[in-house]
Amino acid sequence: MIRLSKIFRPFNAPPRNKLPKLLKNPNETASKGYKLLCQYGFIRQSSHGFYNILPMGHRIIEKLTKLLDHKMISIGAHKSYVPLLTKQSLWEKAGMYDEARDEFFEVDNRNNHKLVLSPTHEQTFSHLLSTELMSYRDFPKLLYQIAPKFRDEHRPKLGLLRSKEFLMKDLYSFDIGPKEADQTYQIVTEAYNDIFNSLGIKFMRVESAKESHVSMAHEYFYFSDIGDDRLYTCMACDSSYHASAVADRHTCPNCLKYLSEDGYFNAIEIGHTFSFGTYYSTRLGSCFVDKNCQRSPLHMCSFGIGVSRLVSACAEVCSTEEDELRWPLPIAPYSLCIIPPKLGSVEEKEIKLLLPDFYRLLEAIPSLSDDIVIDDRTEYTIGKRLVEAKLTGYPYILVIGKDALKSTPLYELFDLNHEKRYLMPKFSLLQFLIRATEMLSESSLKIAYLQNATTQQPSTDS
Ligand SMILES: [Zn+2]
Prior knowledge:
- The chain is an alpha+beta fold.
- The protein is about 30% helix and about 25% strand.
- It has helices at about 30-40, 55-75, 90-95, 95-100, 120-130, 180-200, 280-285, 305-320, 350-365, 380-390, 425-435, 445-455, 455-460; strands at about 1-5, 45, 50-55, 80, 85, 105-110, 115, 135, 140-150, 165-175, 205, 215-225, 230-235, 240, 265-275, 285-290, 295, 300-305, 335-340, 370-375, 395-400, 410-415, 420-425.
- The longest helix is centred in the middle third of the chain and has 22 residues, at about 180-200.
C-alpha cells in the first residue's frame, strides 16, 4: 500500500490571495502553476534557480519519462547517456563556445582542464559519431537521453519554467543526406505530435527563427499569458508564427493578408527541433563511407522536450480558477487516491477490515498497478482530505464512507478531469476504472483482468 502519510509532501494551502511564505521573490507568483507546485508539495526551491523535485513531482517526471521512452523506442531511437561535463575544446571546435559561454557553468579539473556543465549535447553526440567510421547502410542512427542540463540564466524565474538546472529529453539523429535527414525530421515530428496529443493539452507547432548554423527549426508551445514567447495566428488562414520569425509584423507570410493585433498571444515553449545539415559533422569530423567508398559528412538533427519545464507548463495551463491542480491522466502523480473514513467514526472499524482486500483488487488492475495512493491520515475528516485531493489533482478520487456498508455497498468516485461524481457498486466501479485508465496499460493484460473480475462478480459485490 502506498500511504500518503509516509510521502514527503509538505502541503501548504494558504488562505486565498495570500503570498505563500515559500516564495520570497514576488515575481515568482506570476506563475500560478509554480506557486501551486510549491504550495502542494511537488517541488521546493533549493537555491536561486535550482529546485528539489519532491516525490509527488518526481512521479510526474517518471511517468513522462516512460511516455517518452515508449515513443522514442517506437521510432527506432536508442537511449544512451553521455557525461554532463563536456570538454570546453569540443565547444570551441564546434564554433559555439564564444556565443554560448555567457550562460555556461564552467569548471576546472585538478589538471586545469576546462570543462562545461552542458546546456545541450550536439557537440558530444557529433563527436561520439566521429569515433567510428560506419557505412551508409548503417544509417540512420537516432540516439537520445533524458538527463539534466545546466544554464546559468541571468534571470531565472517561474520555477521549473526557467531554472538553472533542468531535465531534457534530447534526441540526436544522423543521416547520410539531406533527403534522409528530412525524412527523419518528419518521423520525429510526428512522434512529438503524438506525445503532446496524448497529454490532451492544446499545443501549437510553429517554425522558429533560424540561426546561421540551422537549416530548419520548429518550436512547440502551450498557450499561456506568462509565456516568454510571442506568437500570432492569422485570422484569415489560421497559420501561426513566432513573432521573431516574421520580418513584416503586419502581413501574414502565408496568405499576405493584414494581421490584426488580436492575433497575438503569449506561449510557453515545451519542445524544439533543429536540422543542422552538416554544420557539426564538418567541424567535429563525424562521417560515413558512401556508396563510392568516399568519406562524407553526416547530416544531423536534434530534438528536445523540456521534461521538467513540461511539468510546470502543465500545472500552469491545467490548474483551475479555484487553485486546484489538474493533470493529464498519463502523467498524474497517482491516477487514483482512496480516502477511507475518519478515525473513530461508526463506519471506520468495519471499513478498515475490508480496505486491504479492496486495495489489492484495485491494484490488480494493470493500469493502476503501483498507481494508487491511500490517504491514510484518518485523523482528518473525509471532507478535509477530499479538499486536499482535489487541490493535488488526482484524476480519480475514491471515497469509502458510510455508503460502503449498505446492503449493496456503494462507493463515491470523483472524476476530476471530467468534473463528474458517481456513486456505484463495486463491480461497476472496477469496470469504470478499467475503462477510464485503459490507455495506460497493455490491452491484453486489461482483458485478462476483466475476464477474471467477471467470473468473480457474484462474490465481489456480496
Ligand atoms: Zn494568413
